[in-house]
Design brief:
The protein contains three helices and no strands. It starts with 19 loop residues before the first helix and ends with a helix. It has a domain at about 80-105. The chain is mainly alpha-helical.
Amino acid sequence: MAQPQIKPKRIPPRVIEGTPQEITLHLKELDAEERLTLLIPGKELGTNGVASSEGKQALSFEEVFGPLQQGFEESGMTEEELGELIDAELKAVRAERQVKEQSVEE
């Protein structure tokens, strides 16, 4: 098994913020062999996993999970039965994933 290579850092990382033009000026000062990591800020995600638009409010916890709670209550299922159902489904999904991974390796 190959050992991971540890490369000592020469100087601590730094953050350069600014417009693309301002950042370009800073980049010109760097050594051409220097490795960089670029982080581009993302948009805030709403509770539905979609980037929320300005002016639009993200869904509340109640709006997201209310229908699920109502469906559970209407089912007549106990919390214990729900727990067993979830455990069984997780086991089935994991077994399916394991079979897929094994077939890819072959």
